[in-house]
Every structure is written in structure tokens, then in C-alpha cells.
What does this fold into?
Amino acid sequence: MRRFTFTFAIVVFVTYANLPPERTGNFLVTSFGSDSVAVYDSLGNYLRTFTAPGLDGPRGIAFTLNDKIYIASQNTDEVFIFDSDEQFITKFTSAELDGPTGMAISNQGELYVASFNNDQVVVFDLDGNFLRTFTGESLNGTNCVALDSHGAIYVSSALNALILKFDANENFLFEFTGGGISSPMSIARNTNDVLYISGGGSSNIVKFDTMGNMLGVITHPDLPAPQGIAFDYKGHFFSSSFSAHKIVEFDENDNYVQTITAGNLQVPRSIAFEQLDPVTSVEDEITVAEFKLDQNYPNPFNPTTKIKFTIPNVVSSFSLRTTLIVYDVLGNEVATLVNEEKTAGTYEVNFSPEDLSSGIYFYQLRAGKGFVETKKMLMIK
It folds into this structure.
């Protein structure tokens, strides 16, 4: 009995580690000078570069929850769309788009594109159909656009060092500046709705709350002329220096972590991480729901068990690639219970193995690129 118990424990430990690992999210950096986009893993290791014919002066990047990638081509007044494998799909433009720079996607599934040369924001649907424009009297060199958790919109005005705030209906609210910021290039927010704004002309990153109050200033010798800025799944933020051709990582407390130089970056402009945290509609300030994978029932089971999982209320126009796979203790896949696009909701599937022996099995849920959870179950015959 002792020998059996010891052996069983070793098997569970080793094989559980052999299950497919959780994804932590790659990030992309546009290389303006080489008309390409560099791909890095979450640790900052350079992976590859991709581009498309006609991409000229890539600037802003935006990810959707269904894994499409949008890249602004500043010198051709176009937006390019790539699939999750970084393969070019199509491109689109509008007569209203003149020098596209930063981009953001709203919770309603609309693409906001900063149009630098005509001082406005151009709004498209995710198929590239023009919807409308909006602007503010102080906008002068529209450089980037970002949204907070309540749907408020922030637009940088590069040529007069201002940030303009609009409500979720695109009505102008107020403008702000501070920290000696010059030529604001990019805006990113952390999970506490603190806005980090890179000052390309002042070589600093200035922190603000959503009311425009300055909270602090960040600088680093490796980060002259910061431009792109984005947060990863851990709360670390990454910023690119378009003059030093580097990427600098800081932790969640704004402490320096590392400088990344690989990837042959030439004037790195924007940074974006694969989306790992699907969001809900902000109407009535709905709280973000979480994915959930329930314990199978009954457990132990023979011959059938049920597995229930929940996909939260993500952006209504999206579905997420979802898989629910059963593995044995050697890490081998023994059954695929779900492999399809799923919208928000609670689902229940039956697992009724007929040709499997008694023992421990694992079932793993993956949804999009951000959620992975694994649970253990026991079959007794």
C-alpha cells in the first residue's frame, strides 16, 4: 500500500505539469521606420516580425477579443487588419482619416482612430465601415485615444501638450495637462484607472487620475522620447523610446525591470498586449464578471459526469474561441468536449467515457487567449 501511494503521487505531479500551460499574452510593437510589427512574449523575448504590402509608417495597434489585430498605417491613411496568426486580411480607410496614429476599441465594438492631420477622432465599426467623427476645440495634432473603465474617452493633443476628456457619448468634458509633459504620445490606464501618458517631447511619463489631477512623473535614462505604452496582465507597463529604439519595462510599482533592445526596432511607436481581460458593457457601471469552471458533478463518477462553465458578459458583438478538453495523467488528450466560438453564458456538457479505465483525469477550459483553468476528476468503474 505504501508503494502504491508513493508512485501515484509522483505521477500526478509530473503529468499535471505536462498539461498545456497558461498563456500570458504576447505583445506587439510597431516599428515605424521599418514598416513592420515586432512580436515579443510576455517576458520581453523577441519572437518574430510581420508586415503586409503597403503598410507604411505603422503607428497604433488595437486587439479585439476575437483575436483580430488592427494596425494604423500613418503614411497611407489606412488601417490594416490581421488575423490572430498575424496574416493580413484586409485594409480600409475614409476621406475623414488623415494621418492615423493611436487607436482604441470601445466596449460597444467600435474602433476609435486618432487622425493627426485634421485634429479629430474617426470612428469605424470593426469591419472598417465609417461611422462618424468627433473633435474638441483644443485638439491640435490628435495623437492617441484611450478609454477608461467607465467608457470615458481621452484624446491627446500633441502640438499643445493637452489631454482632452470626453464622456462615453463623445461630449467634451474638460482638458488637462501637468508634469511638464510635452508632445503627449500615448495613453494607457492600469486596473485602478490611473492614466499613464508618455511625453515624447519631455522624456517622461506622467500619471493622472481620471479627473486630470497629476499623480506622479516617471523617467529613466533608457527611455528618452517615450512613445508607446501598455500594461501587461501582471500590471507591469512597457514603454517604447522612439529615439533610442528600445522598450523599457517597469513593474506594478513603477520600478525599472529591464530594457529590451532585440527585434531590430526602428522608431518604435505603439505597444499593445493581447487582450487577457474581457470587459463588460459599462452601462450602469456593470462590474466585470469572471470566467468560471465548476467542479464536475458527480465526482467521483461512473459512467457519466457533468461539467459546467461560464463565460462572462464580454463585448456583445464578440464570441470567444472556447475549448474544453479532457487529459489523462500522462498529459494525453482523451476527449474534446467543446471546440467552438462561444458567447457569454453558462454551459453544461456531459462526459460519458466508454473506453477509458478508472483513474484520475484532468479537464481544462480555455476561452480566448486570457482564460485557462484546469480541474481534476476521478472515474471509478
Summary: The longest helix spans residues 2-17. The domain at 2-21+284-379 is CATH 2.60.40.2550 (Immunoglobulin-like).
